[in-house]
Amino acid sequence: MSAQSSCSNGSSCSSCEHQKDSAECQLKATLSQIKHKIVVMSGKGGVGKSTVAVNLALALALEGKSVGLLDVDIHGPSIPKMLQLEGVTLYTSNGQLLPASLGALKVMSIGFMLQSADHAVIWRGPMKIGVIKQFLTEVCWGALDYLIIDSPPGTGDEPLSVCQLIPDAAGAIIVTTPQAVSEADVSKSVNFCQQLNFKILGLVENMSGFICPKCGELTEIFSSGAGASLSGKYNLPLLGKIPIDPVVCRGGDDGEPFIHHYANSASAKAFASVIQPILALDQA
């Protein structure tokens, strides 16, 4: 897929205007078939945002919902690895790109289009924005209950593009870790959403304590409280606190999401509380 191009002289023309109108209509048509669009974001990298996105999508699929998972992390796509979908070949139908599938879950990522997993994508903003728009308009998502969008860390081109392209989104889930340094960075995501009038569904505190694999005891290994502090400061619901669990780390590396393969783990049970308000969206 390539980003949309503009006139060589930078000015508008009737052909460009027609293409723009057509693309806007196609975007609206695609989004109209998706009931709830949810963006998973964080102002800080390394908080386990993609882990939350993957397991949220799978948890909803396990509840019998039709779900799509869109990875808009152009420079560091990790969804194919986390779902054991590396090397998947994508096909087209009626001029649209068919997403990869994992059971009933539909998945799209720039990672499917790279020559190799270590291939670097060296693009400026307009290219990234164009591809994200194409992921929303030229991918055959079909009718979905939920589209979960995994955004890269920060408040740059990718999350901004998603929020502007999907004005009727259900909202954002913002991921933090317990430390104070994470709280400061994640606050930027909260302010980002507020400035865009983009609804925030709630916060998830990931890596919230360590579960001993032998005795099951929870030990606080980081400073704690960022999730609760952010929740109180911005009057946002804290959807859940996901502990560090060896099965989560192993599952991410092996492509076995913990909510599915380790349903009895402490992390999977903690994650159950996260999906309840999300499921409630489909009942409203």
Structural description of this entry:
With 284 residues, the chain is α/β, with parallel strands linked by helices. It has a single domain (42-281), classed as Rossmann fold. The protein has 10 helices and 11 strands. It has helices at 14-32, 49-62, 79-82, 125-137, 157-165, 180-195, 226-234, 246-254, 258-261, 266-281, and strands spanning 34-41, 67-71, 91-93, 96-98, 100-102, 105-109, 144-150, 171-176, 200-211, 218-219, 238-244. Strands 1, 2, 5, 6, 7, 8, 9, 10 and 11 form a 9-stranded mixed beta sheet that branches. A two-stranded antiparallel ribbon has the order 3-4. A hairpin with a 2-residue loop joins strand 5 (100-102) and strand 6 (105-109). Helix 2 (49-62) crosses helix 10 (266-281), helix 4 (125-137) runs parallel beside helix 5 (157-165) and helix 6 (180-195) runs parallel beside helix 7. The protein starts with 13 loop residues before the first helix and ends with a helix. Mean pLDDT is 86; it is low at 2-12.
Overall shape: globular
The biggest sheet, with number of strands, parallel, antiparallel or mixed sense and barrel status, is: 9 strands, mixed
Spans of at least 5 consecutive residues whose pLDDT stays below 50 are 2-12
Structural class: alpha/beta
CATH architecture: 3-Layer(aba) Sandwich
Can you tell me the CATH superfamily?
Answer: P-loop containing nucleotide triphosphate hydrolases
Mean pLDDT: 86
What's the number of helices?
A: 10
Name the assembly state: single chain
Would you count the extended β strands for me? 11
CATH class: Alpha Beta
What Rg, in angstroms, do the CA atoms define? 19 Å
Beta fraction: 15-25%
How much helix is in the residues? Answer: 25-40%
Spatial separation of the terminal alpha carbons: 36 Å
Number of domains: 1
- SSE series: HEHEHEEEEHEHEHEEHEHHH
CATH fold node name: Rossmann fold
